[in-house]
Amino acid sequence: MTTVDLPTTEGAHHDEAPSHPATSTGLTNEKVAMWAFLGSECLLFGGLISTYLLYKGQSEPGTIRPHDIFDIPYTSVSSFVLLMSSLTMVLALSAIQKGNHRALRVWLLTTALLGGSFVAGQCYEFTVFVREGLNLRTNLFGSSFYIMTGFHGAHVTIGVLMLLSLWSLSVKGRLPSEKAEVVELIGLYWHFVDIVWIVIFTLVYLIP
Amino acid sequence: MSTPEKTVEAADHGAVHAHEHPSDLQYVYIALFLALVTAAEVAVYYVKSFKGLLVYILATMAVVKFSVVVMFFMHLRFDSKVFRRFFVTGIILAMFCYVSVLSTFHIWHR
């Protein structure tokens, strides 16, 4: 992506450049990079979900199968929690765009708490499954299930850490409205982990 | 090196912030819709008479939820087409990955 030299007035301060350079596409490089990253993440999760779908029915007979242990009502509540965190995230972005920093901090913290609840729920679910005899080495279903949902959980955890960092920056007054795009970029990442879970919840948990 | 006029043209073409995003209330309505679809998904899972159509119904609902989040919460409906191309390319490649592995398991190993 090429940057464009805009004409400057003689004597103008060069360090007063706009926060985002004018580019040949008119799009900020950070946002283009984030969407390219999310496109590549589709491939990562596509590979993990494909592996799960192809392996889940190939476990040895007599070992634990998916619908022997899944607790659908419990996972439905987790899914609902993550889905609602997308709402609070988009409200956080809306708040900073309007210059309402108090609301920004409330919504960022709410999103982080909802994300943390989801991760805690996933840890509890894993504990229950291990107690029931399903671990990484039990069968192909166990291996592919833990790898796929574990990668997703790691993504949510990274998202929670980024949200808490944003909240911390905002508390210190280092997140002015001009930097709303930072919130937007982390929001894109957050919504992405939500849509990955939408796919996992349906393909892994609900479809037999 | 582009001229400033060209940059402005490119920005217009990119349609950055060209359309208004939904209001906070509209975001709440969208979230309510998503919650209702999730509830419907779980309900359909327990209805035995839907067993034959379960896969199709659940897949349709998941596609609807996925699209709504991408279009409205991720603002892909209002943002530049460049972002849409990045994302759709990723999804198409992910599907290609699944079909490739599926064919490896079910066709090529014989």
Query: How many DSSP H or I helices of chain A?
Result: 6
Query: What class would the helix/strand composition of chain A place it in?
Result: mainly alpha
Distance between the termini of chain B: 56 Å
Q: Beta-sheet strand percentage of chain B?
A: under 5%
Which oligomerization state do the chains in this entry correspond to?
heterodimer
Intertermini distance of chain A: 46 Å
Number of helices of chain B: 4
Count of extended strands of chain B: 0
- Overall 3D geometry of chain B? flat
User: From the helix content, strand content and strand pairing of chain B, which structural class follows?
Assistant: mainly alpha
Mean pLDDT of chain B, rounded to whole units?
Answer: 82
Secondary structure topology:
The complex is a heterodimer of chains A (208) and B (110).
Chain A: H1 29-55, H2 66-69, H3 72-97, H4 101-131, H5 140-171, H6 180-206
Chain B: H1 4-14, H2 24-46, H3 54-73, H4 81-108
Key structural traits:
heterodimer, A: mainly alpha, elongated, disordered N terminus, B: mainly alpha, 4 helices, about 75% helix
What report would you give on this structure?
The complex is a heterodimer of chains A (208) and B (110). With 208 residues, chain A is mostly helical. Chain A is 71% helix and 0% strand. In chain A, helix 1 packs antiparallel against helix 5 and helix 3 packs antiparallel against helix 6. The longest helix of chain A is centred in the C-terminal third of the chain and has 32 residues, at 140-171. Mean pLDDT of chain A is 89; it is low at 1-17. Chain B has 110 residues and is mostly helical. Chain B has one domain. Chain B has helices at 4-14, 24-46, 54-73, 81-108. In chain B, helix 2 (24-46) runs antiparallel to helix 3 (54-73). Chain B is flat. The N and C termini of chain B lie far apart (56 Å). At the A-B interface, helix 1, helix 3 and helix 6 of A face helix 1, helix 2, helix 3 and helix 4 of B.
